[in-house]
Amino acid sequence: MKKLHIGDKVALVANSNGLYKENAEKVERLTAVLTDMGLDVQKSKYIYAENSIFNGTGKERASELMSFFEDNSIKAVFDISGGDVANQVIGYLDFEKIKNNKKMFFGYSDLTVILNSLYSQCGLETYLYQIRNLVSDNAEKQIAEFKKTFMNDEETLLDFDYKWLKGKSMHGVVVGGNIRCFLKLAGTKYMPDFTDKILFIESLGGDVAKMATFLAQYKMMGVFDKIKGIILGTYTEMQRKEYRPSIEELVLEAIGERNIPIAKTEMIGHGTDSKCIVIGRDIKLE
C-alpha cells in the first residue's frame, strides 16, 4: 500500500479543538520524526488554541484545510487535534474541489465527522488514525508500522486481531469512528448511507448510561436495520473501570434479534498503540 514517497510534502492541521501551547514540543518532535522519514512537513497556521479552545473560526480552519487539498504537492493531511468542534469546519469545505484533488486524510475521535463527510461527499477513503502516536508511548512500533504500511507495500498498520461476539464473518464498506462524534452527522447530508455497511464504533470516555443512549439513537435512526456488521473498537473508560453492563452486553441488547455479525478488537481506538482502520474501504473479516 505504498502511498508516500521520500520527498513528499505532508501537512499537519487541527480542525477540532486547538492544541494547548504546552504541546508545541510534541508537535516539533512529530515534525522531526516525519522529516526523518524523508517527508517535507507543512503546518497549518491554526494549530494552537488562542481564544478559549478555538484555534481560529470554523471558516478559517476550513480555508486552511482547503488550501492543502488544492495544493497538488501535498500528498497527505494529518489532523493532530481532537475534542468537540470539528463539525464547525464541514459546511465551509468545497467537496467538489476536494473530489478533484483527492489525497490521504488522517484523524480520529472528533475528526470522525470530517472523515465520514469526505467519504460520503467525495467517495474519499479516509484513515481513522492519530499520527501523534508516532511520538507517544509506543512510538518505536508505531513508526515502524506506519513506514511499512504507507511508505512500503505492506498492510501492517491495518491488520488487527478480533474476536467474534456474534456470527463468524462480515463483508462491507466501513463507516463510523467515535460512537459519540459520529452522531453529530445525524440528520445532515454528510452522514453516509448505512445500507450494507460495516459500522465501526469506539470511545475514549463515557459510562454505561452514555453508551446506552448513543446505541439507542443509532437504533432509532434505523442503522441496525441497514448495516451488515459491527466492529467494536476499544472503549477506554468502560473497559478500564469494568463497568457493567459491558459495552459488548449493551450492543447485543441494542441489536436484539437482528442477525448482525459483531466483532470486538482491542487494537483500534484512542490508545497510543492503536492500529488504523480505513473509512470508505471494503473490509472482510472471517
Automatic annotation (TrEMBL):
<dbReference type="InterPro" id="IPR040921">
    <property type="entry name" value="Peptidase_S66C"/>
</dbReference>
<feature type="active site" description="Nucleophile">
    <location>
        <position position="109"/>
    </location>
</feature>
<dbReference type="InterPro" id="IPR003507">
    <property type="entry name" value="S66_fam"/>
</dbReference>
<dbReference type="GO" id="GO:0004180">
    <property type="term" value="F:carboxypeptidase activity"/>
</dbReference>
<dbReference type="GO" id="GO:0008236">
    <property type="term" value="F:serine-type peptidase activity"/>
</dbReference>
<feature type="domain" description="LD-carboxypeptidase C-terminal">
    <location>
        <begin position="172"/>
        <end position="285"/>
    </location>
</feature>
<keyword id="KW-0378">Hydrolase</keyword>
<dbReference type="InterPro" id="IPR029062">
    <property type="entry name" value="Class_I_gatase-like"/>
</dbReference>
<keyword id="KW-0720">Serine protease</keyword>
<protein>
    <submittedName>
        <fullName>LD-carboxypeptidase</fullName>
    </submittedName>
</protein>
<keyword id="KW-0121">Carboxypeptidase</keyword>
<keyword id="KW-0645">Protease</keyword>
<comment type="similarity">
    <text>Belongs to the peptidase S66 family.</text>
</comment>
<dbReference type="InterPro" id="IPR040449">
    <property type="entry name" value="Peptidase_S66_N"/>
</dbReference>
<dbReference type="InterPro" id="IPR027478">
    <property type="entry name" value="LdcA_N"/>
</dbReference>
<feature type="active site" description="Charge relay system">
    <location>
        <position position="202"/>
    </location>
</feature>
<feature type="domain" description="LD-carboxypeptidase N-terminal">
    <location>
        <begin position="10"/>
        <end position="127"/>
    </location>
</feature>
<dbReference type="Pfam" id="PF17676">
    <property type="entry name" value="Peptidase_S66C"/>
</dbReference>
<feature type="active site" description="Charge relay system">
    <location>
        <position position="270"/>
    </location>
</feature>
<dbReference type="InterPro" id="IPR027461">
    <property type="entry name" value="Carboxypeptidase_A_C_sf"/>
</dbReference>
<dbReference type="GO" id="GO:0006508">
    <property type="term" value="P:proteolysis"/>
</dbReference>
<dbReference type="Pfam" id="PF02016">
    <property type="entry name" value="Peptidase_S66"/>
</dbReference>
